[in-house]
Write a structure and sequence with these properties.
The protein has helices at about 40-60, 85-95, 100-115, 130-145, 160-165, 175-180, 225-235, 250-265, 295-300, 310-320, 330-355, 385, 405-425, 430-445, 455-470, 490-505, 510-520, and strands at about 5-10, 15, 25-30, 65-70, 145-150, 155, 195-200, 220, 240-245, 270-275, 275-280, 280-285, 325-330, 525-530, 535-539. It is an alpha/beta fold. β3, α1 (about 40-60) and β4 form a beta-alpha-beta unit. α11 (about 330-355) packs across α14 (about 430-445) and α16 (about 490-505) packs antiparallel against α17 (about 510-520). The chain is elongated, with a radius of gyration of 29 Å.
Length: about 550
């Protein structure tokens, strides 16, 4: 299967043509959440980024196995080798079982992902369901001489590994720098070197979550789960591993070392990482008072938010930036994203209502008062294509530069080509959105009577939006409703009211016309009079 998809590989630090290991099939693993709190913006960005990749690979015709894990054990505070398990701590504070905490926040995460229109992965394994696989991984690393047992815990021997391979290949760090950057931690005496990391931790008496192992009753180190579960569901080698940029070191660096130490070869071909999210220029954090959960964004119930922002506004805003660029959330930026989302959806609604021009219709009506074809462009009155060898828009004939005649089809085809080029250029969703807004201009010109579109033109535009806005970018038309609800009767009822208002105005019954408009406004509808009748939308 041929494709022109280039993706930025963090490992090689360059864009590379994507070539899957197995023809027509893609194995993709993305690090999911540690479920001890409500999902926030930091969870939304990787979920949306790799949802778009998942969607686009399937659009290209690949059969994709997408694995996204749930971390429900082993992730200690501060991403360290000592301290309390994040979920166990939450359970202790709330006086709950750890699995109650994990299940509750897993459900909350799933609810938020559905709201953001993030597709579920093919497989969603939990760390606690794969203790045996993680223990087997640790045994292999010990047997190969790259790990040691200390006081019932097992640590990865970075010195031994670095002699035979290279620790730091993903992050660009060397082992000396890693040692210097490591914090002095309680219990570091169990390690041979400061940079060594835990593969298995012996549980302290008060530790609730524990499993038997050849070394002690304990629990796996945080880095083990992704290596073990990725290998189980995608094989010893698979195509793509994704996550946030904050996971490059230590998490993904440790994953690479574990895989090579266990099986003698790397597991992943392409490493992809989305950039961070800031809020008003600051890193998001509870201590700064700018930590905002997704639910708070959706409800507006946070002191820094001026209003609620719909899930599609959040998704649209994230996709307006390239996934490797920083995204800064602010009320102004979100409000701009909301308006942009509404404009593109309004254009989609207008497209649904467009009627094709008659075959004899003028290609450049706005340019020629008499309706003659491109008279200003060609003294002989020849069509646009003849006036422009490249089939470009009749700029000379049309003051707004809109295409006319046969060039409309070429313009729409060019828009599709630009969308494909943007997606193939490392998922440049920002450029896709910009191109779709160019398509919106065509739609609005046709709506205003300044451009004639054929049935084929209209269908091609619908196909363009269907493929790129809805199927690939995953934007949802909120006005269309969800959960498979048929809103046709609702729309017909609003249309009926506005037709009654139109008839009232024709009969100069201004009071009735104003009453219908005012009541609809009070109910949340925005009504706009047009030369052909009316338009409406939810405010």
């Amino acid at each position: 299967m041929e494709n022109n998809l280039f993706i930025y590989n963090t490992l090689t630090r360059q864009k590379q043509l994507f070539k899957p290991i197995n023809e027509g099939r893609v194995g993709m693993y993305v690090c999911g959440p540690t479920v001890y709190g409500d999902p926030h913006l930091g969870h939304a960005r990787p979920a949306i980024t790799f949802d778009v990749l998942f969607r686009y690979l399937r659009f290209l015709g690949y059969k994709v196995r997408y694995v996204r894990n749930i971390t429900d054990v082993g992730h200690l505070e501060h991403d360290a080798d000592e301290g309390e398990d994040k979920i166990a701590k939450k359970a202790r504070l709330e006086q709950l079982e750890p699995m109650e905490v994990a299940q509750f926040f897993t459900n909350r995460y799933h609810d938020a992902m559905r709201a953001l229109n993030v597709l579920p992965p093919s497989i969603e394994p939990h760390a606690t369901g794969h203790i045996i696989e993680q223990e087997k991984l640790v045994e292999q690393i010990i047997d190969n001489g790259y790990a040691y047992v200390s006081h019932g815990s097992v640590y990865f021997d970075t010195e031994a590994y670095n002699r035979d391979h290279r620790y730091g290949i993903l992050s660009g760090r060397n082992l000396d720098e890693t040692r210097d950057a490591s914090r002095q931690l309680d219990g570091v005496g169990e390690k041979r070197n400061q940079a060594d990391f835990s593969l298995w931790k012996a549980a302290q008496p008060e530790h609730i979550m524990r499993w038997p192992s050849p070394w002690s009753d304990g629990f796996p180190g945080w880095h083990c789960e992704c290596t073990a579960m990725g290998r189980k569901y995608l094989g010893e080698e698979f195509d793509i591993h994704g996550g946030g940029m904050d996971l490059v070191f230590p998490h993904h660096e440790c994953e690479i070392a574990q895989a090579v130490a266990a099986q003698g070869k790397p597991m992943v071909r392409y490493w992809m990482h989305n950039n961070m999210i800031t809020i008003n220029g600051q890193k998001m954090g509870k201590s700064l008072g700018n930590f905002i959960t997704l639910e708070q964004f959706f409800t507006g119930e946070h002191p820094t938010l001026n209003q609620p922002y719909s899930p599609m506004t959040v998704r649209f805003f994230i996709l307006q930036a390239h996934y490797r660029g920083t995204v800064d959330f602010s009320n102004d930026a979100l409000l701009a994203a909301q308006k942009a989302y509404e404009r593109i959806i309004d254009a989609w609604h207008r497209l649904q209502a467009l009627q094709a021009a008659s075959p004899a219709g003028p290609p450049c009506a706005a340019a020629s008062p008499a309706g003659s074809p491109c008279a200003a462009a060609s003294p002989a009155g020849s069509p646009c294509a003849a006036a422009s060898p490249a089939g470009s828009p009749c700029a000379a004939a049309s003051p707004d530069g809109s295409p006319c005649g046969d060039s409309v089809a070429a313009t729409i085809a060019a828009l599709r080509g630009r969308c494909a080029d943007a997606m193939n250029d490392d998922l440049n969703t920002a450029q896709v959105i910009a191109t779709l807004f160019d398509a919106c201009r065509l739609i609005n010109q046709a709506h205003d009577g300044n451009l004639a579109l054929s049935d084929d033109n209209i269908n091609e535009l619908k196909s363009l939006f269907g493929d790129y806005l809805f199927d690939i970018l995953g934007i949802r038309d909120d006005a269309a409703g969800g959960d498979n609800i048929d809103l046709t009767p609702y729309r017909k009822a609003v249309d009926l009211l506005l037709e009654l208002r139109l008839n009232a105005k024709r009969n100069k019954d201004w009071a009735t016309g104003d009453l219908i408009r005012d009541r609809l406004n009070e109910a949340g509808f925005s009504v706009k009079d047009t030369k052909d009748g009316f338009e409406w939308k939810l405010q």
